[in-house]
Amino acid sequence: MSDARIPVLDLAPEISSLWDELNAAFQEVLRSGHFIMGEQVGTFEAQVAAYLGVKHAIGLNSGTDALVIGLRALGIEPGDEVITTPFSFFATAEAASIIGATPVFVDIDPQTFNLDIDQVASAITPRTRAIIPVHLYGHAADLDPLLALTAKHGIQLLEDVAQAFSGEYRGRKLGTLGQAGAFSFFPSKNLGAYGDAGMLVTNEDSVAQSARMLRAHGSLKKYHNQTVGYNSRMDTLQAAILSVKLPHVDTWSESRRTAAARYNAMLADLPEIVTPCEAPYARHVYHQYTIRIQGGRRDRIQSKLDAAGVSTMIYYPVPLHKLPVYAERNLHFPISEAAAAEVLSLPIWPQITTEIQERVVTALRSALLE
Ligand SMILES: *Cc1c(COP(=O)(O)O)cnc(C)c1O
User: Fold this and answer.
1) Could you tell me if the CB of 198 is within 6 A of ligand 1?
2) Are strands 81-84 and 128-132 parallel, antiparallel or unpaired?
């Protein structure tokens, strides 16, 4: 067993611990015969709204759709500018492009990997209509100064909470501080379905109403379409599964924090490694435990870890402004580019054991020595 390859994420312990409950939930959906937007979708929406302390939760087909529908529900239109980070998953910027808006990138803070507030402030133009901060790896972006900017300029704040379900900013749940929050329940996220699913949350009635309309082909009443929308309804099975998992999410986040603290202690004496920070305003939920390896050695270290049976991931190897789709803009963001060359996400999941973490760190130490 101790020779088994270590994955970056192991969902098996969670699935086996909830096996009977998951099966019961599956069977209930099978018996109901309502596979899309069945009763369990409404139940899960109410549960998330209560958990987060937010007025509306709208179940959708993916986190990407939550961003797209969120932007449109907030009134963002073709030609508008949306300020966001180039150090994220592509979907964050793609959502703005999909609706014909322009994603405007600014560089990140080197400690938190999240939006650099001063650069956001200087990127605001008369065409700016929204800011999308990403709570990357489960660590909150610094929301108070961003909210001050959006209030001052009368623009919208849409939180990309795909990686940070249950994370907090100054004691408040992420996703509930801006005008809306976009969640993903992709299987590997901290609260993951067993297929695609997502959710938009908001305290604003009109935004919720608009999102409910957009997810169902632009209609609130079937066959009375008022606008061009999407097919972005949530599957009943995914909602039923997520309802089984939601009551455990706090325990899982606490376990991720404990595992992260163990890695921090194990890596503390290695000057070549920068361990993740947790800002005073944040409750980090470690969707990823991401270190930095400086001096141009990251890729070699990753190969050596791989050869030693330790899987790791690079989130993300190419900053968004360098992707072919946006490269023609010829942008340069040194902090994001350095991060893309130095980050390495180590294996983490709620049930990861000290023994597995010791094997990861032992392999990392010998890779660093070579
Ligand atoms: C996963 C992710 C998304 C997209 O979510 P999907 O459910 O896969 O569509 C968006 N933004 C970030 C930061 C993500 O990590």
Assistant:
1) yes
2) parallel
d(CA 137, ligand 1 centre) in Å:
11
Atom of ligand 1 at shortest distance to CA of 67? Answer: 10
Q: Is the pLDDT of residue 1 over 50?
A: no
Tell me which residue has its CA closest to atom 6 in ligand 1.
63
- Domain 248-369 CATH assignment equals 3.90.1150.10: yes
Which atom of ligand 1 is closest in space to residue 287's alpha carbon?
A: 15
Average pLDDT, whole number, for the chain? 97
Quick: pLDDT tens for 142-196: 999 999 999 999 999 999 999 999 999 999 999 999 999 999 999 999 999 999 9
Residue with tokens 């150090």: 87
Q: Which amino acid belongs to residue 239?
A: A
pTM: 0.98
Is the distance from the beta carbon of residue 62 to the nearest atom of ligand 1 less than 6 Å? yes
Q: Is the pLDDT of residue 2 over 70?
A: no
Amino acid at 53: G
Closest Cα to atom 2 of ligand 1 = 162
Whether residue 146 contacts residue 157, with contact meaning beta carbons closer than 8 Å, is answered with yes
C-beta of 184 in contact with ligand 1 (< 6 A): yes
Domain edges within the chain: 12-247, 248-369
Q: Is 315 in the pocket of ligand 1 (CB under 6 A)?
A: no
Is 153:160 a contact under the CB 8 Å cutoff?
A: no
pLDDT in tens, 91-119: 999 999 999 999 999 999 999 999 999 99
The percentage of residues in the chain with a pLDDT greater than 90, rounded to a whole number, is 98
> For residue 230, is the peptide bond before it cis, meaning its omega torsion is within 30 degrees of 0?
no
- Asked if residue 238 has its Cβ within 6 Å of ligand 1, the reply is no
The CATH number of domain 12-247 is 1.10.3210.10: no
Task: Count Cβ atoms within 10 A of the Cβ of residue 183 and give its class: 0-12 exposed, 13-18 middle, 19 or more buried.
Answer: buried
Q: How far is the CA of 369 from the centre of ligand 1 (A)?
A: 36
